[in-house]
C-alpha cells in the first residue's frame, strides 16, 4: 500500500511505540491523527512531526470512554472523510500473581487493551468498508502467546486480542482491508521501567524497531498480507 496522502489514526501516540509509529508514517507521507489521554505528550509529537516536514493532528481522547471514542471518530470523519490506517497501539499492564491482582487493575487492562480496541475498530470499519481499502494494525505482545509469572491479567488481554485479530482478519479481507497483528517482545519504553533501567536496554527492542517492522508489513503489494508477526531481540543476553 502507498502511504502517501493516506490518513492514519494511531492510539497511544504520545510515547513509546505509538510515537515511533506515528513519526514513521508521517515520514511516508501520511497525515497522522494522534490520540492519547495526555495533551502535552500529543502536542510534543505533533510538533516533532511538523518540524520534520510531516503532517499531524492531535485529538486528545480517553478511548476507554465510549463518548470520547464517538467524539474522536466524528472529528476525524468531519475533517478527512476517510481513514486508511488504524494502529491500535494503546495498552498497559499491571503485573502481580493472580491472588494479589486487584479487580480494578484487571478490569482496567481489559477496558483499554481489549474493549477500547474493539470500539475503535468498529468505528474504523464504518469508514474503511465503503472505501474497500484499509489497514488495521493491532499491537499485541509475545505475552499473548506465552505465559509468565505475574502476567495472568495482562496476558489474558493479549491472548484475547490474538483471537479477536485472527477473526477480524477473516471477516474484513473481502473488503480489501488487511489486519496485521504484531507481537513484540521486550521493548525499551516506559512501559517496562525495569527493562529501561537495566543493562539490557541496549540489546532489547527499541520502539523504532517495532515501527519499522510494521511499516514493512504495511507496504507489501496490496495482494499480499502478513497477518501476524513476532518480533524479539536478536540476542537479549
Structure at a glance:
With 237 residues, the chain is an alpha/beta fold. It has helices at residues 16-27, 39-51, 66-80, 103-131, 152-172, 193-196, 207-218, and strands at 7-11, 31-35, 55-58, 85-88, 134-139, 177-184, 228-231. The radius of gyration is 17 Å and the shape is globular.
Characterize the quaternary organization of these chains. Answer: single chain
Helix content: 40-55%
Domains (count): 1
CATH architectural name? 3-Layer(aba) Sandwich
Tell how many strands the DSSP assignment holds: 7
Mean of residue pLDDT?
94
Describe the fold and architecture.
The chain is α/β, with parallel strands linked by helices. It has one domain (7-231): Rossmann fold (3-Layer(aba) Sandwich), CATH 3.40.50.720. 45% of the residues lie in helices and 15% in strands. The chain has 7 helices and 7 strands. A 7-stranded parallel sheet has the order 3-2-1-4-5-6-7, sandwiched between helices. α3 (66-80) runs parallel beside α4 and α4 packs parallel to α5 (152-172). The longest helix has 29 residues, at 103-131. The radius of gyration is 17 Å and the shape is globular. Residues 192-196 have low confidence and may be disordered.
Topology overview:
Blueprint lengths: L6 E5 L4 H12 L3 E5 L3 H13 L3 E4 L7 H15 L4 E4 L14 H29 L2 E6 L12 H21 L4 E8 L8 H4 L10 H12 L9 E4 L6
Parallel strand pairs: 1-2, 1-4, 2-3, 4-5, 5-6, 6-7
Helix pairs in contact: 1-7, 3-4, 4-5
Amino acid at each position: 500500500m502507498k502511504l502517501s496522502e493516506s490518513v492514519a489514526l494511531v492510539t497511544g501516540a504520545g510515547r513509546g511505540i505509538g510515537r515511533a509509529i506515528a513519526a514513521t508514517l508521517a515520514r511516508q507521507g501520511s497525515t497522522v491523527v494522534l490520540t492519547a489521554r495526555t495533551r502535552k505528550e500529543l502536542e510534543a509529537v505533533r510538533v516533532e512531526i511538523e518540524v520534520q516536514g510531516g503532517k499531524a493532528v492531535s485529538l486528545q481522547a480517553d478511548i476507554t470512554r465510549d463518548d470520547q471514542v464517538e467524539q474522536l471518530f466524528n472529528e476525524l470523519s468531519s475533517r478527512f472523510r476517510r481513514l486508511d490506517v488504524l494502529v491500535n497501539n494503546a495498552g498497559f499492564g499491571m503485573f502481580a500473581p493472580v491472588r494479589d491482582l486487584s479487580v480494578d487493575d484487571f478490569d482496567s487492562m481489559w477496558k483499554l487493551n481489549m474493549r477500547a480496541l474493539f470500539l475503535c475498530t468498529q468505528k474504523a470499519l464504518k469508514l474503511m468498508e465503503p472505501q474497500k481499502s484499509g489497514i488495521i494494525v493491532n499491537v499485541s505482545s509475545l505475552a499473548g502467546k506465552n505465559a509468565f509469572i505475574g502476567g495472568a491479567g495482562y496476558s489474558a488481554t493479549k491472548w484475547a486480542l490474538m483471537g479477536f485479530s485472527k477473526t477480524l482478519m477473516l471477516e474484513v479481507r473481502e473488503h480489501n482491508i488487511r489486519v496485521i497483528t504484531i507481537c513484540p517482545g521486550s521493548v525499551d519504553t516506559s512501559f517496562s521501567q525495569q527493562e529501561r533501567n537495566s543493562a539490557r536496554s541496549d540489546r532489547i527492542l527499541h520502539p523504532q524497531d517495532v515501527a519499522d517492522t510494521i511499516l514493512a508489513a504495511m507496504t507489501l503489494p496490496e495482494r499480499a498480507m502478513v497477518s501476524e508477526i513476532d518480533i524479539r531481540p536478536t540476542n537479549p543476553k
